[in-house]
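Hi! If you just cloned this repository, the fastest way to understand the data is to look at a raw example. We've pasted two of them here, unedited. The first protein comes first, obviously.
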Amino acid sequence: MLLVNIIAVILTLYLAFSFIYFAYILYCASKARLVDIENKISATEYTNIFNIVVYAHNNEQTIPVLINALKEQEYNKEKYSINVILDNCTDDTAKVLEICSGTRLWRLNCEDGQSKGKAEAIRWFFDRIFINDKSDAFVFLNADTTVRPDFLNRLNEKINVKPVVSGITLNKNMFTTFVGRVIGYRKIFLNTVIYTGRNIAGFLNYLNDDIFALKKDILMQVRGEFNTKNNFNFELPITLSNMGIDMYHSSDIRVFKQYFESTDNVLKFFNNTNIAKFVL
């Protein structure tokens, strides 16, 4: 009987804690939306000069879609440039980009022919351009994503409020199948409500590798985080937090993966997902 009472007390405490926690997260998410609305008008007063950095490794099939989407932005064309880092590509990515035009290519080639990874590729890129670059902010994208025409306009609004912005990743064709719709709505809920609420509450220490942006002055202070193969999308937010710099997780900044939902992709999604980060 005593054991049953102990279990009952533990379950009651757990349910009470869960209710309070999620109620607080929902409150913070709603607060973030109100702040977004208040800042929307004032945040567009300054038009940033963006340096868009696209990381590519054997992405000949997807990168033309992204580059065309970037060239068709509603943003002032004189206010952004597109740089593509080709990390030991063995396919025809470079040839495809030469046909597309409108980008500056940076070829990272090594004797062993192995990909260096995004962190080291970005560091290599910065060593060559950072001092003379005149941009206000850097935007980082992966070559297997694409964006909507208002992407840079939305990003300009957010980065004028916070110097570090992280967005969300959805699947380009997520609503074409039942499984895709389930996963799609789940991602939207997690990013729009849970992640946003956790960010405002100070619980979220994760940078979306697919889309993030930093003001140049902040980037100068954290360039060291790109000197390692370690998981910088977890380490960089910790460094920023220790420096007293807030990261803005915005569900309005969206990129879209360029593939259809399939059974294989669903299995990969769940195998690569850290369930713990969705709970606390």
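Ok, and the second one:
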Amino acid sequence: MVKAYLTLLKPRVIWLLILASAAGYVYAAGGVDWGKLSSLLLVALLATGGSATFNHYWERDIDAVMRRTSRRPLPMGLIKPGRALAFSLALSAAGVALGFLLLGLLPGAFVALGWLFYAVVYTMWLKRRSWLNVLAGGFAGNAVFLGGYALGRGYIDLAAVLMSFAVYLWIPAHIWSLAYKYREDYRRAGVPMLPVVIGEQKAVAVISVLNVASAAYIVLLTLLFLQSPLSLLLVAVGAGAAVASSIYALVKRTEGAMWKMYKSSAPVLTLFLIAVMLA
């Protein structure tokens, strides 16, 4: 039962958002106050885990008809919907409240905005209505980075906004390349993800180009704001793999090539966030 509740948090999804919040804080602060960082990580875990759990609750009917998600705790009957909802609301309320109490007004506001964009804008409003769901919900990625940055510096500047878009621009290609593999699932569930809406061949082209653009933007940010040899090396490795897999997918236009692009897209953002913390 404990494992089922942990699954509701989507740990394989939220860890990168938690890392983004930590990266924003460490870069902005120029050092580490372990008390503040610990509070930030706790708040990020509660808020992102709460919104992810709410996503499980709200989409339990969709999950039940999709092959990829049919074995999640709610479709399997391991957790009752009412308990999942209560768990999500408790985590979310604790995360947002502690965001304001432990981190301050500005970081807390970004914690609340991140929750709002994922749980309400993406999950409740747009997921079943428009292929723009990912583009709108992606602002949750900006919010987690900006929350950490605001904690470290006390304000938001242009550098913070530009760097937060590394997360935002990475999200569409990553999500849509996964959606491409499970496009029949989304079609059957009536979810208008991009590969379902525009067709397979156009989707391959759009997603591949977006993945290259995301990697290029991350390289540009590294040159502008990080510049250390180690940072450049880390980002070059991740961006190189992302670009190579995108070109391969664009040439081959197969499900296997798209899956390789999906698998290679996570490291580029991970390596960038590590480079940010090491700058």
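That's it. A detail worth noticing about the second one: The mean pLDDT is 96.
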